[in-house]
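Why should sequence recovery work at all? Because a backbone constrains its sequence more than one might expect. Tight turns favour small or flexible residues, buried strands favour hydrophobic ones, and helices have their own preferences. The token representation captures these environments compactly. In the example below, the structure is given first.
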């Protein structure tokens, strides 16, 4: 009788993911090898080929589970491993997942290797296993360093360079994974910070599996829009804050990562929306947090300013100026030629500013600042006392704060008679809108709908006026001919008066 291998023991994988700028693989390895925490540690290399499986309707993905076959080594001397993971998330660079790994005889899935794992609860009759099929593959070379520290912590640092292949599409893999083998989670962030001071990194929220599914569906690097978390009134207030802040920060960092390669103006917009949602939530939960959020570095603030200028140029190019074209040209050939010259100059300005943003992302201080925020977010629910939902009615708390914020907005509108005060109104409208969206599960439907609609209307009206005023600055910046420059300045003056 054939003996079935024992099922693998359950384990928890705690991992911090970082993305790296695309570049020469040899240069990246050399840069990392010079980082003090990795220097003088012997590195090993592995060639890894992975096949990911799911059902046609992606039942595993819907349950945040991953099943893959991994070939380690080349064809002559390779080993196959089957890995089942649960609990994956796309809202934090720090992920904790259940992981079960077993050797298998060949490139074929083994149901036996899934015994005594959560798979048994998901697939009692075997129908799920029978419906599995390959979805995509990843192939990369992994360079490994094992960091043992005096405090007893052990962290495996893996540099992965290769590609994802799905439906004839390819996407590069260029990332670091820091896996905790022993010690406290803080060891991951301490080592990551040492690396980030030398190599430009960004927190990476999406795993290779998640990126593979997105690539297969042609959704990789598309704008990542707000996806407010599911909230319940029984959450401790600090866990509520953590979920909302983690979600908003993920919107910012996911879009920031896409900006490495995407020229889509909407990615720029959603990056800025993510940051505004994050800072709005920080203001909302300010008195509930055990520790204040880290202050953004100067490099991060500079990047945010660069993103703001890029957004202004994108809006002028794609929205504001196209709506004004016919009013200026009026069938005149010479005016049409001037307008085309301006459009070409604006396109060049957008491209140059996009390059400015990407260079700003390469500043090491950006990565270290963002890492500090991830560390703060993930430590939030363990620092100090956690107030339970039984001690604080979150529904009442949320309703009171939105009502208070709405009152502040109305009061600000009554007093606004200068550009500075109108800017204050716009900021309050954004805070009301984003926080209403963030807390929508805890608010009465009518209050949530009214708050969002009221704030959106104010934000849109003031934003449109601001966009019209901005085109006046283009007259000087783009060195336009006199007639067109005067037209745009006139538009700007009219926007200020209205």
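From this structural description, the recovered sequence reads:
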């Amino acid at each position: 009788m054939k003996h079935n291998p024992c099922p693998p023991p359950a384990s928890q994988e705690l991992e911090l993911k970082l993305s790296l700028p695309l570049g020469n693989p040899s240069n990246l390895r050399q840069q990392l090898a010079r980082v003090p925490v990795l220097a003088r540690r012997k590195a090993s290399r592995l060639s890894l080929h992975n096949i990911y499986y799911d059902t046609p309707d992606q039942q595993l993905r819907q349950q945040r589970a991953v099943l893959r076959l991994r070939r380690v080594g080349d064809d002559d001397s390779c080993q196959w491993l089957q890995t089942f993971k649960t609990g994956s998330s796309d809202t934090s660079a720090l992920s904790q997942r259940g992981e079960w790994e077993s050797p298998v005889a060949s490139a074929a899935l083994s149901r036996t290797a899934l015994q005594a794992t959560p798979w048994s609860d998901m697939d009692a009759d075997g129908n799920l296993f029978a419906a599995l099929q390959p979805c995509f593959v990843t192939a990369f070379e992994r360079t490994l360093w094992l960091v043992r520290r005096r405090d007893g912590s052990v962290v495996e640092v893996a540099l992965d360079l290769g590609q994802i292949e799905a439906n004839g599409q390819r996407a590069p893999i260029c990332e670091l994974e820091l896996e905790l083998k022993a010690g406290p989670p803080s060891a991951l962030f301490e080592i990551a910070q040492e690396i980030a001071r030398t190599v430009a990194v960004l927190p990476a929220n999406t795993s290779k599996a998640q990126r593979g599914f997105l690539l297969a569906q042609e959704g990789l690097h598309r704008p990542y829009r707000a996806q407010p978390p599911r909230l319940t009134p029984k959450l401790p207030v600090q866990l509520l804050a953590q979920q909302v802040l983690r979600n908003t920060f993920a919107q910012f960092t996911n879009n920031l990562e896409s900006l490495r390669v995407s020229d889509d103006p909407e990615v720029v917009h959603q990056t800025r929306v993510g940051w505004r949602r994050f800072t709005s939530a920080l203001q909302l939960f300010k008195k509930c947090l055990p520790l204040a959020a880290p202050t953004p570095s100067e490099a991060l603030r500079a990047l945010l300013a660069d993103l703001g200028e890029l957004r202004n140029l994108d809006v002028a190019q794609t929205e504001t100026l196209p709506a004004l074209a016919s009013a200026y040209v009026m069938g005149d050939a010479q005016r049409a030629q001037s307008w085309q010259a301006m459009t070409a100059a604006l396109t060049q300005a957008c491209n140059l500013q996009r390059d400015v943003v990407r260079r700003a992302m390469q500043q090491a201080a950006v990565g270290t600042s963002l890492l500090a925020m991830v560390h703060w977010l993930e430590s939030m629910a363990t620092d100090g006392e956690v107030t339970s939902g039984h001690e604080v009615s979150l529904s009442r708390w949320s309703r009171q704060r939105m009502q208070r914020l709405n009152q502040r907005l109305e009061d600000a509108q009554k007093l606004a008679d200068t550009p500075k005060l109108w800017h204050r109104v716009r900021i309050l409208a954004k805070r009301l809108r984003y926080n209403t969206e963030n807390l929508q599960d805890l608010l009465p439907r009518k209050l949530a709908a009214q708050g969002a609609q009221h704030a959106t209307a104010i934000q849109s009206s003031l934003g449109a006026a601001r966009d019209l005023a901005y085109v006046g600055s283009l007259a000087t910046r783009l060195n336009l001919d006199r007639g067109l420059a005067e037209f745009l300045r006139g538009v700007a003056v009219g926007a200020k008066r209205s």
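A few observations help interpret the result. The radius of gyration is 26 Å.
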